[in-house]
Design brief:
- With about 425 residues, this protein is mainly β.
- It has 2 domains: about 35-275, Lipocalin (Beta Barrel), CATH 2.40.128; about 280-418, no CATH class.
- Helix content is about 5%, strand content about 50%.
- It is built from 3 helices and 27 strands.
- The protein has helices spanning about 5-20, 350-355, 410-415; strands at about 40-45, 55-65, 70, 75-85, 95-105, 110-120, 130, 135-140, 155-160, 165-175, 180-185, 190-195, 195-205, 210-220, 220-230, 235-245, 250-260, 270-275, 290-295, 300-310, 320-330, 335-340, 365-370, 375-380, 380-385, 390, 400.
- Strands 23, 24, 25, 26 and 27 form a 5-stranded antiparallel β-sheet that branches. The chain has a 4-stranded antiparallel β-sheet with strand order 3-4-5-6, with no helix packed on it.
- Strand 24 and strand 25 form a beta hairpin.
- The radius of gyration is 25 Å and the shape is globular.
């Protein structure tokens, strides 16, 4: 038997019914046939900011999934990877992985689905997609790196954004490895693959119909994020590695690499720096918004949780957290130098709490350069740091540690010294 709503409940239900409206009608949902069953919806929303139509909203909805997103001045691209785990007739697994990329046109501020691209393999993140001078570039890895023998190869496909036709491609890069980082910069593409060593590939994409590999460099470790410093300098952020007894690679601390790519045929690692030991990580490796580089000063700021082995203990997996905050570097004269460290953790707290265990709300995840000062932000703290004097500015921090929703905080909060 249905329960009768009270007057207050009825009012809430009525208000919800009035306030909530469909994004679009069923007839307005776009889809592509022969791509399997759609497991979700991709809705692109455009909000006008012009004075005569301020706040006006236009939407389009597509039946499909959305993973990585890339936007240009004319289009929004949304990718999704599909996997086929069925077996071939001989019992071998099928290498049925492909990526679909939806293209939405932004003409007159109204997003409209225009076409779909399908490429073999999977992409690592949004930086594997790029649009330049009327061409869409997509970098993928196809196959299985961990199969014995491995079947993986990496590729770059180039399409004309007006008619969707393939203009050119480069296939078969780094057999047995997979892509860890991609960055497109104008007519040049940079790709890092990895299994045991880090090959950095420099691609010439100036002729979309005939892209080619200009040069490559193999060094220990790998990059997970690539950032152009100038037309001839490229910064890589990733991990250091060493060979293990089984012929594989053991991942160690965070590694910064400064590459000279001024001569595409011969890229060179000019400088490198390794922070911490096994377990050390930087949020900026997989969240580019956590990465701060100030070109005018050369300042580089990276959130960092540092793990080290206790002194006198060389046993593997004995590492423990020794720092949680942000590392400040400067890049000058083709070199990387550590300048200082900034943390929101309190020295008055027990060591386990101070360095991240249960105190994740004080882990720095964003930083901003402002008038020769550095603003660092964690979930419950904002702090301003004087770069010239290497000191926190007096009365310049905002402590939001105690949740405002707790009128009478329990003993847990009142007993901890912040």
């Amino acid at each position: 038997m249905a329960r009768t709503l009270s007057p207050s409940e009825a009012d809430v239900e009525l208000k919800m019914a009035v306030d909530v409206s469909p994004v679009c009608s069923c007839e307005d949902v776009s889809y592509v046939s022969n791509l399997g069953v759609s497991s979700g919806w991709v809705t692109v929303v455009a909000v006008s900011t012009s004075p005569d139509s301020m706040g006006q909203v236009k939407t389009t909805t597509h039946a499909g999934r959305g993973e990585a997103v890339m936007m240009s001045a004319r289009y929004i691209y949304v990718s999704a990877t599909n996997w086929d785990y069925t077996m071939l007739s001989d019992g071998e697994p099928r290498d049925g992985q492909w990526t679909v990329v939806l293209q939405f046109a932004l003409a007159l501020g109204s997003p409209t689905f225009s076409r779909l691209y399908t490429v073999p393999g999977s992409i690592v993140n949004q930086f594997a997609l790029d649009e330049h001078e009327g061409h869409l570039r997509i970098a993928t890895t196809w196959g299985d790196m961990w199969r014995d023998p491995p079947t993986s190869v990496s590729n770059v496909y180039i399409y004309d954004t007006e008619d969707g036709r393939q203009a050119g491609k480069v296939e078969g890069l780094a057999p047995g490895e997979r892509i860890y980082a991609v960055r497109f910069a104008g007519d040049t593409g940079y790709i890092v693959t990895f299994r045991q060593v880090d090959p950095l590939f420099v691609l010439d994409l100036s002729d979309a119909a005939h892209p080619l590999v200009r040069g490559q460099l193999k060094i220990p470790g790998f990059s997970e994020y690539l950032h152009p410093i100038s037309s001839s300098l490229l910064l890589g952020l990733g991990k250091d590695t060493e060979d293990d007894a089984n012929g594989g690679a053991l991942v160690l601390g965070v590694k910064l690499s400064l590459f000279d790519v001024g001569k595409p045929e011969k890229p060179v690692e000019l400088a490198s720096m390794i922070v911490g030991h096994r377990g050390t990580n930087s949020l900026a490796s997989y969240d580019h918004k956590a990465f701060l580089f100030h070109p005018a000063s050369g300042l580089l700021v990276l959130p960092m949780q540092v793990w080290e082995r206790p002194k006198g203990n060389e046993e593997r997996y004995s590492e423990e957290v020794v720092f949680d905050g942000a590392y400040l570097f400067y890049i000058h004269d083709q070199a990387i130098s550590l300048y200082d460290k900034v943390s929101h953790q309190s020295d008055k707290m027990p060591k386990g709490w101070r360095w991240g265990y249960g105190n994740g709300e004080r882990q720095i995840y964003r930083s901003v350069y402002m008038d020769a000062n550095l603003v660092t932000i964690s979930d419950r703290h904002v702090q301003i740091y004087d770069l010239a004097n290497k000191a926190k500015l007096r009365d310049s921090s905002l402590n939001l540690t105690r949740p405002q929703c707790l009128a009478q905080p329990p003993d847990f909060w009142t007993n901890v010294v912040y």
